Amino acid sequence: MNLENYVIEKINRNQIHGAPYNPRKINDDARRKLRDDLEKFGLLGPIIVNRRTMNIVSGHQRIGIMDQIQGREDYELTVSMVDLDDRAEVEANILLNNQAVMGEWDTDKLNQVRLEFPDLNFESDLGFSPDDIEDIFAGSELGTVAPDEPAPPPKPATYHAKMEIIVTTSDEGEAEDLYQELTERGLKCRISTL
């Protein structure tokens, strides 16, 4: 069974556009990190585009930053072209961006990466925020030292709790204002439509 449901094509950037329903946003800090990564590595995988609508299915943030770097919207671009009806396009867009279906970090493997590449900075090189690092590595061995180094004194036990607050409102503007206010305070938030 062939699961590859795309073809690679070269097109002009101005032939495609962002999907008007795309529910993903990016804050300034994440945009800066993504731009840094694009400038460092280039585009490592194609933008996904639906042939029927010429909507971007996946890659809205990358294409926006590429436009900034290029300084225009009329450059040649290699894309992964798919052929989806409207409903399938929306489903694919959301699934490709849904953190809940992307799995979790294996902290033991991340710690192994840290030990093998000690000069790799989890914040500046890999884009993790200090809060991400604290959340991901809570209770893990991230602080493990190399075998030839003396072990640091034990740290006092700390406990991490995650809390979820649900706010219900029928005013979309109020929801967006609250989201903006809370994210500016450094809290992780999401808006869900009921």
Write the layout of secondary structure elements.
Elements: E1 7-12, E2 17-18, H1 28-41, E3 47-50, E4 55-58, H2 60-70, E5 76-82, H3 86-97, H4 107-116, H5 130-137, H6 172-184
Parallel strand pairs: 2-4, 3-5
Antiparallel strand pairs: 1-5, 3-4
Task: Offer a few descriptive terms.
single chain, 194 residues, alpha/beta, Conserved hypothetical protein from pyrococcus furiosus pfu- 392566-001, ParB domain, 5-stranded mixed sheet
State the end-to-end distance.
37 Å
CATH architecture of the largest domain: Alpha-Beta Complex
Low-confidence stretches at least 5 residues in length (pLDDT < 50)?
Answer: 143-152
Q: In percent, how helical is the residue content? A: 25-40%
- How many beta-strand elements? 5
Domain module count: 3
Shape: globular
Rg from alpha-carbon coordinates: 21 Å
- Main-sheet strand order equals 1-5-3-4-2
Element-by-element helix/strand order: EEHEEHEHHHH
Largest sheet: 5 strands, mixed
Kindly report the CATH topology of the largest domain.
Conserved hypothetical protein from pyrococcus furiosus pfu- 392566-001, ParB domain
Structural class call reads: alpha/beta
CATH uppermost class of the largest domain: Alpha Beta
Proportion of residues in β-strands: 5-15%
CATH homologous superfamily assignment of the largest domain: Conserved hypothetical protein from pyrococcus furiosus pfu- 392566-001, ParB domain
